[in-house]
Amino acid sequence: MPSTRHRSSSASTPPAVTLTDVSDPRQLRSYAATAQVAYMDAGLEPGITKMTQNEIAKIHAKIKQVNRGNKPDPTAGVGGDATPNDPSGNFSRALRNGPTIPFLQALDTVILGRAPQLSRAGGLAAFAARLSGVRSGQNVEATISPFYQPFVLAIRNPPPIILLLQATILLAEFEEPGRPPSDVRNVHRETLAHVVDGLIQIGSLAPTPSSVDALILLGSISRYAFDLVEKRLDRALRTPLGFRVWRALAAVVLAIKADRRESSPEGEQVRDWVERQLSFCERLRQYSLYPARSLDLELAIAIPKIWSPPERDWAGDRLRARAKDSNATLRERGTAVFGLWERAWDGEYQDAARDEIFEFITDFRREASRRPGLKWVAGTLEQNVRRHKKILTTWPDLDEPCQRVIRDAGRELDSTIPNRIRAATETLFQHAVIKNAGVHRRRAIDAIRAGGWAAQVIPALRAVLRHPQADPWLRCRALFALGFMQERRERAQVVMREACEHSWDRLKRLNLDDSQATRVRVIEVHAALFAVGDCFGDPAGEQAAAQIREQLDELLQRVVTDVVKDDGRFLVPVGRALSYLLATTAHVRSTSSKNMLDRLVTVSDPPTRHMSIWGLSRFTEHGIVKQAHEVPFEPMSIED
């Protein structure tokens, strides 16, 4: 393992990032932007010209001045942006105080052109949009000339990057001052249908920044063309990867809230439709390839109080049902019960909710002997309630095994992480694994990814997976972080290969039955296989995907054999994750992928079979494998 000694700092070293609230988007933006600046200063990557913060600040100030058309900057000197007169000082203040969207857009211009590998994280401005969950005219730039925009919009079956550009152009037109949305719908009705279908398709694939951005754009466009989008989203929720489409519904709700139109006729139409969809979420969960992902719960958390008041809290009822479901994963139950507290906090009825929350805490502790990890959920939730806080960054002193594991693993963070972001990176790493509030756990992972230091966090995640005191639920969280970070280099490949092999070996030591011991081991194998598909299913990682598939294919053949033999008894989640991995990486190992998918088509589980059929539909009669975004998902037959 690399040394964990911190590099010494000099008097000229910029101040360290202070991360006191992991739920504060300003602080997360500050971390990600500072981390990228530190990345450029570290000069770790071959071919990247090392740049100090002062050098970045000077270029950034010039770009901002050009973007403003040489007009004075009203935010200069008050912590917003750098100016040519004091680029370094104002730049530092902006990093520290929470950089604005225009600041981040200019910083993207400086950094991404010089370090294109950081574009895999989607850029800082896009990261800020993911934190808010909605796109608007403030964080979308259609930077193509108006003369070319009609030609771009006319392209059919474009690659994902062009489709995202089409979506940003349409959203910018919808938000054009003085232009009624109906005018844009009338002018671009055919294009809108094409773009919406494409965004759904891209958003259903591996969780790259582009796919997440597609769903947020989809939700943001939906508030202007809901009649066009409604049925398409309803259909998409019923596909094997429909669990990801819940994010688009959440973006619709967040956009309505941002516009303060909850009580408008359009807002009430969205409210009724979302309530119907959430009433069906438990049924859809049974057909989900990844129930633990909990994006339906994140939608429920986002529902405004005026739509779902305490006296008729239909959104809260969805959270209560999942929190009480003993068959749900620990991640789901933790996200659900913390979601109830978050809704009470946002709705300003915390005191009225305390008794119910403490009932959940008592029940979780009573059940903890059978479900390791529930004691940790109960303890952290109690800390929030007793301190009267929505989300806390510090941990209670429970002396739980997961705390010892995460402290030990934190020592394995790569020594190349600069001192100025090291403490904040360790905090984010901890929250990326043991945070029980699912929304904020994912944001912590995303912040590390956006900052550019995901590769340096991989050794710590590996330490979690290998720690003798790590329970399966904790390893599952580390595996999700691995897949979501999208780090594909050799070190990450080794960790994922080991995770697949070790989790399968642990499962095979059991006599499979309907016990909790079998279920948690099955869920761990599911998490390991899904992480591989999430990380390497992106066409941009084709070379790395070929490498890891070559290493894993012998194991995957054995897993396929056991899944087919089991046929719907105990290995259903394994089969679903396996079909996802094979279908999304079919382009790199076409022969073995097709052979294994042909076998999985024979199983009785509908989602596994459906996903396998989709994977096989990527193959043409001439042996060519289509790009994943070119093959639409067909909905499953799910009775209401």
What does this structure look like?
This protein is 62% helix and 0% strand. The chain is mostly helical. α28 packs antiparallel against α29.
Topology:
Blueprint: H1 25-42, H2 53-67, H3 87-97, H4 101-112, H5 124-132, H6 149-153, H7 160-174, H8 181-187, H9 189-203, H10 209-222, H11 226-236, H12 246-258, H13 265-279, H14 281-285, H15 295-302, H16 314-324, H17 330-346, H18 350-367, H19 374-386, H20 401-410, H21 419-434, H22 438-451, H23 454-466, H24 472-485, H25 490-508, H26 516-536, H27 542-566, H28 572-584, H29 590-600, H30 606-617
Helix pairs in contact: 1-3, 1-5, 1-21, 1-22, 2-3, 2-4, 5-10, 7-9, 7-10, 9-10, 9-11, 10-12, 12-13, 12-15, 15-17, 16-17, 17-18, 17-19, 18-19, 20-21, 20-23, 21-22, 23-24, 23-25, 24-26, 25-26, 25-27, 26-28, 27-28, 27-29, 28-29, 28-30, 29-30
Question: What structural keywords apply?
Answer:
globular, single chain, mainly alpha, 640 residues
In short:
This protein is mainly alpha-helical and 640 residues long. It has helices at 25-42, 53-67, 87-97, 101-112, 124-132, 149-153, 160-174, 181-187, 189-203, 209-222, 226-236, 246-258, 265-279, 281-285, 295-302, 314-324, 330-346, 350-367, 374-386, 401-410, 419-434, 438-451, 454-466, 472-485, 490-508, 516-536, 542-566, 572-584, 590-600, 606-617. It contains 30 helices and no strands.
